[in-house]
Amino acid sequence: MTALAVSNATLWIVVIGLCVALLAVVRQLGVLHERIAPVGALMLAKGLKVGESAPQVAAHDLEGRPITVGAERADGRATLIMFVSPTCPVCKTLLPVLKSSLASERDWLDIILASDGETAIQREFVQAQRLGGFPYIVSAPLGISYQVSRLPFAALIDAQGVLRARGIVNSREHLESLFEAKRLGFASIQDYFEAAAQTRAA
Amino acid sequence: MLDPAFGYLITAGIALLFASAGAHKLQDLDRFAEVFAAYRVLPAALARRLAWLIPSLELCVAASLIWELGRRMAVMAGIAILIAYAFGLGVNLLRGRRDLDCGCGMARDRRAIAGWMVWRNLILAGALGITVWPWSPRPFGWTDFLTVMGGLTAGVTLYAAVDRLLGDVAPKAMILRSTS
User: Fold this and answer.
1) CB spacing of A8 vs B160 below 8 angstroms
2) Of A32, A48, A118, B50, which is most buried with the most CB atoms under 10 A?
3) Domain, as residue range, for B116
4) Are residues A101 and A3 in the same domain?
5) d(CA B53, CA B62)
6) pLDDT at residue B107 in the model
């Protein structure tokens, strides 16, 4: 009986040790993936090409003003289209960041919010989140032509109507990486690193 | 007849799970209210107003599971909650809303709903269902105490490992595969 109890206790210690080790390995695996995962707004492998002209979509904002997204602009300003939804919690956490970007990037950038769904719900959302400062477009074709698969999604278009950056945006860092990508002239941070590696190799 | 060591192991494990889930939701109730409304199983305004009810219910179940007299009720309530979650997840997966925030895990990380979560909840509900069986009236010795404590520690770490593997590592690996 004593031998059995001792054996049982020993086995428990070993089993718990193994479980702890397994947990540690899995955590490390997660950290490893984070390290090698793309930095900045996540660029999807498929879809629209950065550097090509963005699809032109004519739409109206909630106030009924006509807006042609993706058109060439005479005033030389770039446009950021941010796809959001009243039902996406992460979108809500990004709204203050967008408001501050609207102010800080004022001299070269216009920000347009875009969504899809019932207009009444969108109006309620705009009112509740105080988004009066942004043109707000409710249009399903817009989302389809920009191939928005997941929210919050952003697309940056320059004055010539060329798509400069696009991707899923989850945080302030992601949003700023889009601006950075435009400034540096690279489609994404990944492209930047690739180009840097190539010049080093040459 | 169910051996009491097994019974205590299952109820204590699930009580721990409910307690941590309820505590996490209460920590950031505003965020949970948004997440709960986004599930679209209740009208949005009602869901936001009733959001506090869910973590409170979870904490109640956790507390009564370890209490001898309240156990039967708590087991039933626990099974109902787990199946309700599985239902909410399943409905949204069928609606094709695979990017919906699951509202599980730590307050900070955002995780999309997935099919494995439905199965996890059903398995947990099934495990809890086992304890409805009559328990054998065997005296509870110190080796049983060892069994329950050891099983609980191993169970919690294994649960955390599997949760990380399916919820954190697997989606990241998928992103990596699709970008490279």
Assistant:
1) no
2) A48
3) 4-179
4) no
5) 14
6) 46
pTM: 0.60
With a cut of 80, say whether residue B137 has pLDDT above it.
Answer: yes
Amino acid at the residue B114: A
Cβ pairs bridging A and B (under 8 Å): 75
Please tell me whether the interface predicted TM-score (ipTM) of this complex is above 0.85: no
Contacts of A116 in chain B (CB under 8 A): none
> Cβ–Cβ of B178/A44 closer than 8 Å?
yes
Range(s) of the domain holding residue A86: 57-201
pLDDT, one tens digit per residue, over B48-101 is: 888 899 999 999 999 999 888 888 899 999 999 999 999 999 999 998 887 777
Q: Are residues A107 and A26 in the same domain?
A: no
What number of CA atoms fall less than 13 Å from residue A164's CA on the CB side? 21
Q: Both A33 and A133 in a single domain?
A: no
Q: What is the pLDDT of residues A118-148, one digit of tens each?
A: 778 788 888 887 877 788 888 777 777 777 7
Neighbours of A168 (CB within 10 A): 20
Co-location of A154 and A82 in the same domain: yes
Whose CA is closest to B22, among B12, B7, B30, B32? B32
Q: Is A51 left (phi over 0), alpha (psi -120 to 50) or beta?
A: left
Query: Looking at the 3D structure of chain B, how many domains does it have?
Result: 1
A144 touches B: beta carbon within 8 Å: no
pLDDT band (50, 70, 90) for residue B108:
low
Fill in the DSSP letter of residue A152.
S
- If you measure CA to CA, which chain B residue comes closest to A13? B150
Comparing CA positions, the residue from A110, A124, A20, A32 lying closest to residue A65 is A110
